[in-house]
Amino acid sequence: MMCRKKWMWNHPLRTIWIGEYMQKDYDDYEDEMMRLAMGMDSGKFPPFTKNNTEYGGKLAKTNQPNEETDSKFSIKTPMGDIEIDFEQMEVAKKNAKMNVSPPETTLGRKMTIEFLEGKEFHDFNYWNHNFGSLIKLHMEQFYEKDNIVKEFDVENGCVITKPTYGNITIGSEGAKRFLQSGFRFYERNGEKFVVISSMDQDGDQRLVFVASKEGRGLELIEELEEDFYRNGPLKGAFFDMKYNFIERSKNVEKLLAWNPEIKKQLEKDVIQFLNIMPILNEKGLPNSRGIILAGPPGTGKTMYAKALASKTKTTTILISAEMISQRFEVKTIFQMARKLAPSLVIIEDIDTAGTVSRRVTDHPILGEYLQSMDGMEANNGVVVVATTNHTENIDPAISDRPGRFDRIIQVPLPDKSQRKQIIQNLLKIIPSEKIPNKALVSICSRSSGLSGAWIKELVQTSFIETVSNGREKITLEDLEYGLQDVLGRRGMAYIPTMTLNNTKSDNSSVYVA
């Protein structure tokens, strides 16, 4: 009687598939194989070798594995030659497992298949947490509420629950809700599709589009993304590289004492340039520009940049060194700026944000700036305004390269008229008595060499003195006190720090400015 049972044995040198043997021969062979597996000497069958197999005292040489696939070989048996294909065998095993124990279909998938009338093709995309939240938020506006047929979530694959909503703050508009996790069935213009929203373990936001036609889900994702860049929450907004929204402050313009020449140059190179970008693009001319604002600390470079952001409704993105946590973030932001063009990119303290000269050290972010600003991909529609305290520390490939930065504008310390303007601007928003013009001019004359930041500190120190003495309004005496205090503190910034020495004196001194 023939045995139809299949038996697999893993030998150290060869996996052998035995079958279709006489029952008694099969039993003897199985016993012998067990002896070999236990390391016992074989009395009936000689041990297996790589190139031959002994059966019933007769030598049967095996063929070498196929050189192309290395998954086939043959053995001689009393029933004839048997060819073994391990690749086909693995496929057959998987198919058999699927037939015997098919995977359970979750309730969510069953409902999806039923809604799509039997066919389902999945496409998905995912984005980092904040940006992905904005994509999901835009989906709420992109698809009309009337297109939603059903909305739910599935717990443990079998229990229907309510979907989970997240929220994200959109500047002055406040917090807005979006579908964080759950299923949503849509029917739009006679077409049915399903969106499955979820969040990965690392915080990435994921959207899966399920359609009844292969590739349709990918088309729907691309439609959503294209509209996001045209009409989404980032278009025309002011935000940083972590997608936190920044309010365009009107007070910046009021507090800033513009240098007339700098104001004129920036209006020409930024404000007017943004307006003529479409014309340049039509003519096939470069429509990108880079400007560096350079000068000592506290001269108002960042305020100039923020004033530009407040004067235009163009999409504005802020990059600063402390926000750069990993590679490709700078590249991603410039790609974003191009998609949202026309756009303004402000790089705060660019010498600390990855563009330090290669004469000083190597920086992995430098290449991203070089490629992003004038590399293989055109930077059309993007104006970059960077600030720095140390132009000499910026790599020449950045600072001395038209197409990346076309102009460097020096921002000097404020002159007497600017210092007076800064004080007057601050006294408009801080309670103060009427300060005689002559006295104010005197204070401004004696504040020569102070930056705009120190002038602001002068007024703030004066107000603290006012409140400390139980008064509500700044007086001329308070301003005089503030001036002397600031001049003393600023001088301390240039006094070398005392060090321990080997002198035998037991005296110690304490210096207070």
The gyration radius over C-alpha positions equals: 37 Å
Largest sheet: 7 strands, antiparallel
What percentage of the residues does DSSP assign to strands (E)? 15-25%
Q: Supply the helix-strand structural class.
A: alpha/beta
Look at the structure and give the mean pLDDT: 80
Indicate the multimeric state: single chain
Helical stretch tally:
15
Task: Compute the separation of the termini in Å.
Answer: 109 Å
Low-confidence stretches: 1-26, 36-67, 507-513
Strand tally: 19
Q: How does the overall form come out from the CA principal axes?
A: elongated
The residue fraction in helices comes out at 25-40%
Keywords:
seven-stranded antiparallel sheet, 15 helices, elongated, alpha/beta, 513 residues, disordered C terminus
What is the secondary structure topology, with strand pairs?
Blueprint: E1 7-10, E2 15-18, H1 23-37, E3 52-55, E4 58-61, E5 72-77, E6 80-85, H2 86-100, H3 107-115, E7 121-127, H4 129-142, E8 148-155, E9 159-161, E10 164-169, E11 175-188, E12 191-199, E13 205-211, H5 216-231, E14 238-240, H6 251-255, H7 260-282, E15 289-294, H8 301-311, E16 315-320, H9 329-339, E17 343-348, H10 366-374, E18 382-388, H11 396-399, E19 407-410, H12 416-427, H13 437-446, H14 452-468, H15 476-492
Parallel strand pairs: 14-16, 15-18, 15-19, 16-17, 17-18
Antiparallel strand pairs: 1-2, 3-4, 5-6, 7-13, 8-9, 8-11, 10-11, 11-12, 12-13
Helix pairs in contact: 4-5, 9-10, 12-13, 12-14, 13-15, 14-15
Summed up:
This protein is 37% helix and 22% strand. The chain is of the alpha/beta class. Residues 1-26, 36-67 and 507-513 have low confidence and may be disordered.
